[in-house]
Amino acid sequence: GPCYCDQACLRTLDCCHDYNQTCPVIPCVVSQWSAWSGCAEPCQTTYRVQTRHILQEPRNGAEPCPALEERAGCVEYWTRQGTECKQSLIPALITTGGFGKARKKRAAADGKERAGYCVEFQLVSLTPGCLQSHHSYTLWMRHLREGHTVCVQCQHPALHSRSHHCSGDGTGSKENQLLHWQALGNPRCKGTWRRIHQLDTCSCPPVHSFLFI
C-alpha cells in the first residue's frame, strides 16, 4: 500500500520498508536576520527588534524552527518628529547620598539659581548585581530593596541650569509609568521604579537617600 509520511508508523512500528527514503527528514530553513528596527518607544529604555522568516517548514520529524524574533535593549534620545527627548525620561544615574558631601557644588553666579529638590520613588525591580558586589564603594547599593520608597536628591551640578531638573527624575512621566535607573559604579545594578512625588523642601532620610548624577 501507499507509504504515509505522518510519522504515526514510528509509534506503531509498522513503517513501510522504504519509509526513510520515501519520507526523508526535511529540516527547517529560515532566512537571514533582518536589520535591527528602531527603538519601540522614544525617550525611554525599551527594545529594538530583528526578525527572520521561515523559508522551509520542517517535516517528517525534523527539529522545530528556531526563534524568529530577537530583542535587544536600546534608548532613543530623539522623538519621531526629530526633537530631543525630555531628559526626565532618560534612565536615571544614581549614587549614594553621601557623595553630596564630597562633591563640590557649583557656585551660583547671581545668587538666584534654583536650589535642589528631592524625588521619592517606589522601587519596583532591581537586578541581583546590586547585592553581589562586595567593594566598599558599592555597599550603599544593599539599601536598594524592591517595594521600598527611596528618596533621590537633585543637587548642583547635576541640576541643569536650563531645565531646572536632573536627568531621569521622571518629570513628565505618566502616572504609574515604570522608569529606569542605573547605579553608578556597578553596571550590573539597575532596575525600575515609579515616581511618587517631588519634594521641593528636601529632607531625605540618611539610609534610603541617593543622588542624581
TrEMBL record:
Protein's gene: Sbspon_2
Domain of life: Eukaryota
Pfam families, A to Z: SBSPON_C, Somatomedin_B, TSP1_spondin
SMB domain segment(s): 1-28
Keywords: Disulfide bond, Glycoprotein, Signal
Name of the protein in its database record: SBSPO protein
InterPro entries the record matches: SBSPO, SBSPON_C, Somatomedin_B_dom, TSP1_rpt, TSP1_rpt_sf, TSP1_spondin_dom
